[in-house]
Design a protein that fits this description.
Length: 352
Amino acid sequence: MDWVRPLYSREQVNAAGRELVRWDALGEVSLDDVEQWTDAMGIVNNWRASHHFPLNTFQVTLRDRARRIDPRAVVTQRLKRVPSVTKKLQRFKSMSLARMQDIGGCRAIVGTPAQVLALRDVYLNSSARHIQTNIKDYIDSPQDTGYRGIHLVYRYTSDRATTYNNHLIEVQLRSKLQHAWATGVETVGMMLGQALKSNEGEQDVLAFFKLASWAFAYREGTPVPEGTAPQEELLEQLCDMEDRLHVLRRLDHYRHAIAYVDEGALAEARYYYYLMVFSPDKNQIQITGYAKDAFDRATSDYAEQEKRLKSEKLDAVLVAAESMATLRTAYPNYFGDTEHFIKQMRKVLARQ
């Protein structure tokens, strides 16, 4: 297949990123600015798509390494959504688009924290040519939001595919329970139309998920932040919050209400890329599958959907996955499929 090459300088990419932030603050693009906006979006989309080649390289390696540790490991890759890119540039004022570490990201979900750490050690002890630029251990030191997992950032380096040298790729490692928590956060965020995973939204809901993460950490035997309440006291707080907020019940209702479009046909076909467009107003997800050699069409359709996001309150993501089953496991929030999170939370609250 023909891989997308970066067509613009990093200065042009950074300027286009600044335009994203400016137009997001304005709320709309005026008729006088349409041409400038179109040009900037073209630069952003080319820069994002150009990460596909190095991302695919990392994903293949991650899949091999993860399944040596856990044969049932789930591995996917994705290119960061433009709204997420914009929000990150807004949150981190000193960041530039060309230096953003997770435009291209791949993720492995393995069974246990011990397997996450074993997979991390494989990377840390590797003699790969690519340069590790950052490691964030959110298991040993969880984020204030409650997020847990390990992120490894690499600078792609090659003697042959030099066009992509210095592109940054993020490798995420999570246990099954850590992923269930993250799925719960993203699903409720989609339900409420709030960026809960960025610590924005209803304070009570954010507090519930933070406590839920510490409860999961106790369950997995991994560190909790200093000052966290003892396990029994924390569980009492969680029970009180669930009685008041009904987070699990709302998730269960949402899981049964959401509609799926053409999922059966997609499951039977052999696709490699999946474009998922979620409409919270309709509780509906539209999934379009693409063959492995149709990346150009997939990214073009992705860009078209992102133009509609703000006006039509949609959420879209383009993912590479081996099958529909893998897609559902790695991105259950788009399917309202939070069954594992709900089941584990009910066990926690019941002290099982």
